[in-house]
Amino acid sequence: MRAKNARLQEVARAAGVSYITAWRALNSPDLVSPRTREKVSRAVEDIGYVPNAVARSLVSASSGVIGAIVPTLEDSIFADTIQGVADVLHTAGQELLVGLSNYEMEREAELIRAFYGRQIDGLILTGRSHDPGVERLLAGGRTAVVEVWDYGDPAIDMLVGFSNLALARAVTAFLSAKGYRRIAFVTVAGRRRGRERLAGYREELAAQGLDANPALQITCAPTLSGGAEALERLMALEQPPDAIFFNGDTLAIGAHLRGKAMGLKYPDDLALVGVHDLEIACHVDPALTSVRIPRYRIGEQAARLLLARGRGEPEAKERLNLGFEIVERGTT
Fold it and tell me: CB-side exposure of 50: number of CA atoms within 13 Å?
């Protein structure tokens, strides 16, 4: 008898039941009495037996595990979304498996294949851009998929998020309406959401009749220092901006602190806007204007869609645009 079966035999012996009864209590509990389930549960705890979840999934066609892949958990941006997923799954008795892609499409593809190998019941992915090799796998319908933090076409299956293009247009229009005319845009290179927001910024500049000066469209490192250096580069121009739209609060806060050290006054000398509305945005002086994204709710809704699909009860809307909100504070 293999080791794992021998361990289950110990559970059966301790519970005073047959091996098959112990197996049924763990894998098909409805087939045994509550008293038997209780005896087997006590034996499992006493012995420290861990049931084989993969083997159970072969019997039930469900692993009870949802996979989620996000770029990073270094700050609260994606951590809040994962928390929303985890809270919903916990109440439903489901487990969460998390992978970090580090903004690399190849790494995301590796994780997707690894998760599929673990017989996950559903998959949550960040964004709508994936490796072409795995897109065919995802589109095959083998596992329910929810793409989050984005909204638009095409989509593999279900979708929960907001339009990055619309977000950038809204911020640019907001700054234009306040009278700013030399509006700069700062983002991190190589990220799809950044490219979409750059496109929205350019579209709105054109709609407002403003010049899309290439010198005012720059990239930087995804850090406080990166934001600070971006501010210095822009303010050193012969015609510096009168407003800067930072594609992330971390960049904007770095710029905010460096600008104050340089003697800049916000918004008299320069207006700043960030994205994500991190908690620190309220605590700098003056407080940072930012775009509030419903990060936690995105995770909640994604998990609920997967659970509904698993019950065979798809919700009426499987594509949810949760929108965003510009929170105006002292820097504009």
Answer: 2
